[in-house]
């Protein structure tokens, strides 16, 4: 309803920074490098870039079109477009997914705070062997009190921004943090490629070896594209709902996708040369930035400074992402239930903290959650699979079905072009949204169900 007091971005740039802040996160700087490393480097990167173009950009535009047209949270948006239908439940799934992702993402984000603290206090300044670094990591993630405190601290930071609203909280924070992030990244990239032997890392990252492509690599690349761009749960519906009516939303959406992709590639440019320079295998898995990098920093000149910069970067990127996850949930309770933003932020943030505790305890803190219900998997990983894989994939397919087949491409185009800026190829976008995206994501979904291989 009262769209006037929901808040609005001050302009296109503010939206781009906030939405890129959402998209750029642990997904780019932590998940992308280790996934690329596990999946053969260049070939994975090439597929990932292809999926950003063919799936990521159409889905981001589909979400933005819905948000801009309705100026609502995901549930309210579907209610406004198709009242008396089941579609608002798709919005409801999105809100629940925001909650579900935040409840495990905040745990990982909490680890970054601890590494930042460790870098500042000099723990990563000295030379450390890989075994020492591994022991330090396991000690941290297995400490029940510490992980709970760190998770709580990260959710608290998130609440403090979201309660301040769209322009006074999110816009202000991302306007300051995103340029800082970019500068840190560029400095680190220059440092890394000039390391002796660093060039081999770039070759690994950019020279595709097509023999490495298989089902898992393709699925991982598509999954990475969706997660990294924050798609499939209405985050971009929500951020698009605050977009000023007079500005070019199509261009802004493309800018966000390019920005996000650029940062993932830059993270690769930082990490792979560093790995190759000290002879560490690129397929070290999820521990890459937490276990491998500290031992590298220790052996670099001014290593401590680079360590501080890197973990500051990781924390900043994670914060601008957790903000968007909480914002989707808060927007729903503000728009639909009439809560004040302050109340919604504190109550929902606190509830999410409670739900995050089992994930915080699932890397050694409590045996019950480390091997959850005898599945052999920890609670955090299970949540990542449910919310981060299944729910986002289902959400992305249904969003495309909705825009392509129910609401209709002409209506979506009208929303994207409502500021008077025409799209370069509206026909191509229609084909992508109606056919290419749902089929591509559908294949991934069937594949992960059948093979139980998770990206
Ligand atoms: N895209 C973020 C990352 O790369 C994570 C994220 C934030 C997200 N909001 C989201 C993922 C919404 C999916 C949906 O780290």
How would you explain this protein's 3D organization?
The chain has 455 residues and is an all-alpha fold. It has a single domain, classed as Amino acid/polyamine transporter I, CATH 1.20.1740. The protein is built from 18 helices and no strands. The protein has helices at residues 12-23, 26-38, 42-70, 74-81, 87-120, 130-141, 144-162, 166-193, 198-206, 215-228, 235-241, 249-278, 288-298, 303-337, 341-360, 367-370, 379-416, 426-451. Helix 6 (130-141) packs across helix 13. It is globular. The chain starts with 11 loop residues before the first helix and ends with a helix. Tryptophan binds next to helix 1, helix 2, helix 10 and helix 14. Tryptophan (TRP) binds next to helix 1, helix 2, helix 10 and helix 14.
